[in-house]
Design a protein that fits this description.
The complex is a heterodimer of chains A (332) and B (357). Chain A is an alpha+beta fold and 332 residues long. Chain A contains 14 helices and seven strands. Chain A starts with a helix and ends in a 10-residue tail after the last helix. At the A-B interface, α13 and α14 of A face α1 and α8 of B.
């Protein structure tokens, strides 16, 4: 009879391809689903580390199964993180967005394994490792390439903030996994770090909310410009940092009824569409939806439009010309 | 606004010369082909047009004085919609006409650019001419590994506006008898010089058959009234308003230039944050953005007496000169009335009371 370690490893080596395939499937499905959930925000700005499945090393699989004093009756099946993925976001609130995506999928069954907020509520005086863990299992046999994924194959998903991630990178291997108990002094230092991280997350959230409030008027203007640019020029806009720069500067002239203001202006100056189309192929400026705002401000406030503008006189002069105006001389 | 949506079509460039020593005409060098302009050249060309024509004091809507069969107007109208060959041939006749109009020997030669196009929304066809004096200049250029300074002759349409003149005829409606349905605009840096007869007349009058508009008195008075209204409605303090009205009197009555624009006054006297609102106000009241001939002949008493009101029942009337030189107005704190301190005025008049009317 084979020894228990060889037996486990032989099965693992046979099934590792299936676990890899399942991990890859969960990664791709989740990335796409999160992308849909957070539109129009960009996925790569939301997921701070690209989602990629990680297969457990043989040695750590053996250690977890037999040498860490865990009371498994059937270690191979009971170890649920043979393949795992980790999702790192910026704010703790975003963790719940990911959770919704995980639990809403009909590709798997999802079971919560760990929830730091619940842990926090039950032990309010402790500052400890924080993460949200889910185990998802395949619901039906799934063919992926040459591999068939069986029903009930587990994959562990860890969701945490970038701060929580930093904490766990710092402590995980040294404080929790080995049986040796770290010294109280070390534990105290770790708890202090965690407390600081939690406080920092609160501040981050405040900053984010305040930024969102400050950016709201600009975003309203940008959204209106984006919609009108498409309809007005029949071109696909290509917003770049230049667009943000222009909206930021010229939004001061956008009134509360900006939509009305803009569509009235465009109806009056339909000929501008031709000028924009003619120059869009060679000049980035004319592929920015905000080019419409620049025209609007030139008409409403010819002197204001040129003063401190993020655009150069060379860029502005032809736009004044299109509207039959000359670039005003307002000094440097 | 008049020159919005400006599109340049065909361009022909001829050269006219200074008259010979015996004042005989030297025949112009006529173009053999229409010009092909690179996008950059076309952009610069368009820019020169709007720079000169849009809201400059030297750019003015003219009255079309001559419209008979031999007139410039009749000639240029044959160019609108003409085939390329005819356009080129007829534009040569325009060059001859300019050579004839340049009667004095002191008038320099230059390039004559004849072009067609459309402007406005909806677009209206026009024929334009630019007489551009040529300049010489230096250019630094790379020749292989060497940097050389080149001498360039015959550069034209540089940003120096005094070196070109523009005449544009719009054809709003060809179906009505001339000169109705046509508009003429002229840009000429010499127009605003006080001796308006001499320098510019050969171009706008002799060559283009135009005359300074006769609505100067009406427009000048209108400018005066509208600007006064704008100042009165502004939220400047009363002293500042009085200063601006003082400036308005001086601007309308005492300035020597033949023409002015509303923006010229705004840019000179209003604080920066009131200039765009002023332009907007004048635009909404349909006051022309082009230049206006300065003429106070119909303003009568408006320029001779100023009346200042205090409260609802007290008036002070004076000539602008007396007001500026002999009257001093000063806002002071009044005496307490029901816990409020009203604003009073202290008036010093450097004259004795001499009677009552």
């Amino acid at each position: 009879m084979k020894d228990r370690e060889t037996e486990l490893l032989e099965r693992w080596r046979k099934e590792i391809a299936m676990y890899s395939a399942w991990g890859a499937f969960v990664s791709e499905t989740l990335t796409a689903a999160i992308g849909r959930q957070i539109q129009p925000q960009a996925t790569d700005r939301f997921l701070r580390i690209p989602i990629a499945p990680r297969i457990k090393e043989e040695a750590s699989l053996l250690a977890k199964a037999f040498h860490r004093g865990k009371p498994y009756t059937n270690p191979y099946d009971e170890i649920e993180d043979k393949v795992g993925i980790r999702i790192v976001v910026l704010f703790s609130k975003e963790i719940r967005v990911v959770e919704t995506t995980i639990t809403a999928s009909d590709q798997w069954t999802a079971e919560k394994a760990r929830d730091f907020e619940e842990e926090r509520d039950s032990r309010p005086f402790e500052f400890d490792y924080q993460s949200l863990h889910y185990v998802v299992r395949s619901k039906e046999v799934l063919a992926r390439g040459s591999v068939d994924i069986a029903v009930g194959v587990p994959c562990e998903i860890q969701v945490r903030t970038i701060l929580q991630h930093a904490y766990s990178e710092l402590t995980h291997d040294t404080i929790y996994k080995p049986k040796v108990q770290a010294e109280p002094r070390v534990k105290r230092a770790a708890a202090k770090s965690m407390a600081l991280i939690e406080a920092t997350d609160d501040y981050f959230t405040q900053v984010r909310d305040q930024l969102a409030t400050a950016e709201e008027p600009g975003q309203r203007v940008a959204a209106a410009l984006n919609a009108h640019y498409r309809a007005f020029t029949a071109l696909e806009p290509e917003p770049s940092p230049l667009d943000t720069l222009i909206v930021d500067h010229y939004k001061a002239w956008a009134g509360d009824d900006f939509e009305v203001q803009l569509s009235g202006f465009l109806q009056e100056k339909t000929f501008l569409a031709d000028f924009i189309r003619e120059r869009a192929s060679t000049q980035l400026l004319y592929r920015q939806p905000s080019v419409l705002l620049v025209y609007l401000v030139i008409k409403d406030a010819p002197r204001g439009a040129v003063a401190n503008s993020p655009l150069s006189n060379q860029e502005l002069a032809p736009m004044y010309g299109d509207l039959g105006e000359r670039l005003p001389d307002v000094g440097a | 606004m008049i020159f919005e949506n400006l599109r340049i079509g065909r361009v022909a460039v001829h050269e006219v010369f200074q008259r010979a020593e015996d004042r005989a005409i030297r025949p112009p060098a006529l173009a053999e082909h229409l010009e092909t302009l690179s996008p950059e050249a076309l952009g610069a060309f368009r820019l020169r047009m709007t720079e000169a024509l849009a809201g400059q004091t030297q750019s003015i809507q003219m009255r079309i004085a001559r419209h008979d069969a031999a007139s410039y107007l009749t000639l240029v109208e044959t160019l609108i919609g003409a085939a390329d060959n005819d356009f080129l041939a007829q534009s040569g006749l325009i060059a001859n006409r300019l050579a004839e109009a340049q009667m004095a020997r002191r008038i320099p030669g230059g390039m004559l650019v004849v072009f067609d196009g459309t402007a406005g929304a909806p677009p209206v066809p026009f024929i334009g001419v630019i007489k551009a004096e040529t300049q010489a200049g230096l250019r630094r250029a790379q020749d292989g590994a060497r940097v050389i300074i080149e001498f360039l002759q015959n550069i034209f349409l540089t940003p120096a506006t005094r070196l070109y003149k523009i005449g544009i005829i719009f054809q709003d409606n060809a179906a009505v008898p001339r000169p109705s349905g046509r508009r003429a605009y002229v840009f000429d840096s010499n127009i605003s010089a006080s001796n308006r007869e001499a320098a510019a007349a050969y171009f706008y009058e002799g060559f283009l058959g135009c005359a300074l508009p006769s609505d100067g008195p009406y427009e000048t008075a209108r400018f005066f009234d509208l600007t006064k209204e704008f100042v009165r409605k502004s939220d400047l303090d009363p002293e500042r308003k009085r200063d601006l009205i003082d400036s308005l009197y001086v601007f309308v009555r005492d300035e020597q230039d033949a023409t002015f624009t509303a923006d010229q006054f705004g840019d000179r006297y209003f604080p920066p944050d009131m200039r765009d609102p002023y332009t907007d106000f004048m635009r909404h009241r349909k006051f022309t953005p082009s230049a206006v001939v300065r003429d106070t002949s119909q303003m009568g008493k408006r320029l001779h007496r100023r009346r200042l009101k205090f409260g609802s029942d007290i008036e002070l009337s004076a000539s602008p000169e007396a007001l500026a030189n002999k009257v001093q107005l000063e806002a002071i704190d009044g005496e307490l009335v029901d816990g409020e301190r009203p604003r009073w005025t202290r008036i010093t008049i450097r004259e004795a009371l001499s009677g009552e009317q």
